């Protein structure tokens, strides 16, 4: 690896995620909490349709770890949401800032692993 590893990676915008919005929706159906992860790439919001499981919730720092089983399409994903609602400094369209870390592992065709980290906010 080079002394400056950032030179070896493409900028975030080149990966096609710069305009992507991820969101987490909480629902209660028949007394049971359900979580739905969605995304909006500018063409309207869509929810992930693959089975989604809450693996861990830590109330001390409001983190939620989800696993998405898309193995029927040869990939799996994890989402780690930190939703502690810390106040945003400076001007922003988001009054509070949190973050999400998303990973995807593909095992069909050319295997690869992707990891992205982004700020997220509540509106």
Task: Describe the 3D structure.
Strands 4-5-6-7-8 form a five-stranded antiparallel β-sheet, with no helix packed on it. Strands 1-2-3 form a three-stranded antiparallel β-sheet, with no helix packed on it. The protein has strands spanning 21-29, 32-40, 45-47, 52-58, 63-70, 75-87, 96-106, 112-121. By secondary structure, it is an all-beta fold. It has no helices and eight strands. The chain has a domain at 49-121. The protein is globular and about 40 Å long.
Topology record:
Blueprint: E1 21-29, E2 32-40, E3 45-47, E4 52-58, E5 63-70, E6 75-87, E7 96-106, E8 112-121
Antiparallel strand pairs: 1-2, 2-3, 4-5, 5-6, 6-7, 7-8
Oligomer: single chain
What's the end-to-end separation, in Å? 41 Å
- Determine the fraction of residues in helical runs and give it as a percent range: under 10%
The strand order across the widest sheet is: 4-5-6-7-8
Structural class: mainly beta
Number of helices: 0
Q: What is the overall pLDDT average? A: 77
The main sheet comes to: 5 strands, antiparallel
Count of strand segments? 8
- What spatial form do the alpha-carbon principal axes imply? globular
Low-confidence stretches: 1-5
Order of helices and strands: EEEEEEEE
The percentage of residues in β strands lies in over 45%
Rg calc = 16 Å
